[in-house]
Design a protein that fits this description.
With about 170 residues, this protein is an alpha/beta fold. It has 2 domains: about 55 residues, no CATH class; about 100 residues, Zincin-like. The chain contains 5 helices and 6 strands. The strands form 2 sheets. A 3-stranded mixed beta sheet has the order 1-3-2, with helices on one face. Strands 4-6-5 form a 3-stranded mixed beta sheet, with helices on one face.
Length: about 170
């Protein structure tokens, strides 16, 4: 349970590692946050079952340093031209792009509109690579996950944001 000054509401998530995270804003009591968790416990159990099923289908495998270097080279060739093309097509602007071996996020966008992409994007199908990049480009306009952000992303994805997000959840980083 984490009380975060950045939280606007109570949120519950299940990480790829199986960690269950409950976050709540300072104005909410610890007891209320715990009550929220208890109400959502069936959802948590289903999420953990789905995670276990995915692990059974595709067991977690750590990349060797050689495999990481192969992905890094491929990412440096593929991702910068891809983000440049998508930015040009959508009219969205970013400051710079960097490729990192991030294992917790597919990508991120800083307050200065610098976009960082995980080299592990190369393991995704091309349409999901484009989706992640569009997601980060939308953060150059809306630095949050507000309804306006999702409306922009959904429009740029041809009304397929939710379907693409669901599909992306079937993949793990690294």
């Amino acid at each position: 349970m984490i009380c975060s000054p950045r939280a606007r509401r109570i949120t519950l998530s299940v990480r790829g590692s199986g960690e269950v995270r409950l976050t709540y804003p300072p104005g909410v009591s610890r007891e209320r946050a715990w009550q929220f968790y208890l109400e959502k416990q069936p959802w948590v159990e289903r999420a953990l079952q789905r995670l276990a099923q995915r692990e059974a289908i595709a067991p977690r495998k750590e990349c060797t340093p050689e495999e990481v270097e192969i992905l890094r080279r491929a990412a440096k060739l593929d991702l910068p031209p891809r983000i440049e093309r998508l930015a040009r097509e959508t009219g969205l602007r970013y400051a710079k792009v960097s490729i990192r071996a991030a294992r917790t996020k597919w990508g991120s966008c800083s307050a200065t509109n610098s976009i960082s992409l995980s080299l592990f994007l190369m393991a995704l199908p091309e349409h999901l690579r484009d989706f992640v990049i569009l997601h980060e480009l939308c953060h150059t306009v809306h630095h949050d996950h507000s309804p306006r952000f999702h409306a922009l992303l959904d429009r740029l994805c041809g009304g397929q944001e939710r379907a693409l997000q669901r599909e992306l959840r079937n993949y793990r980083i690294g």
